[in-house]
Amino acid sequence: MSGASCVFGCEVGYTLSGSTTCYASTLTPGKCEPDPCLIVPPSHGSRGTCPDLASADNTLESGSECTFDCDEGYSLSKNTTCLASVADRGTCDPDPCLNISAPSDGNLGNCPSESLSSGSMCEFECNHGFTLSGSTSCLAGTLSRAMCVPDPCPTVTPPDHGALGSCGSSM
Known about the structure:
Elements: E1 5-6, E2 14-17, E3 20-23, E4 26-28, E5 31-34, E6 37-38, E7 45-46, E8 59-60, E9 65-66, E10 69-70, E11 74-76, E12 80-83, E13 86-88, E14 92-94, E15 97-98, E16 106-107, E17 115-116, E18 121-122, E19 125-126, E20 130-133, E21 136-139, E22 142-144, E23 147-150
Antiparallel strand pairs: 1-3, 2-5, 3-4, 6-8, 7-10, 9-12, 11-14, 12-13, 15-17, 16-19, 18-21, 20-23, 21-22
């Protein structure tokens, strides 16, 4: 009927744009438009090319993508995309520690030479006459390294028929 209008319902994630009208045998349908996504930067990250939450337009349009920036020691898992109000968000994941080398006067022990995951620990082994001091761990791409320190010498005793002279009782 000419001059009539009606309103369709849209699926979740879509909003109706206009109503459906009929005038002089011309039907003008309303459209279900995809909703944008509210985008929040991940932990250890900032907005990068994504919309600024402090601005009035803090949403990402449906069908669009953006890239967060990650803090030092973190890498982005993927770009963030939006489809009908559903955001598939990238995360800032901690970097592993790469190219681990053995300590002076020791070897890798159970530490991998290629890569140690962030939050992981491993243990070097020391050569004879040396003792491991500290622990080896990785946190966001930064390796904290244990060291091999020389063992102290045993108590010094003078030889038979001798005296300590300039030697103390320990060295």
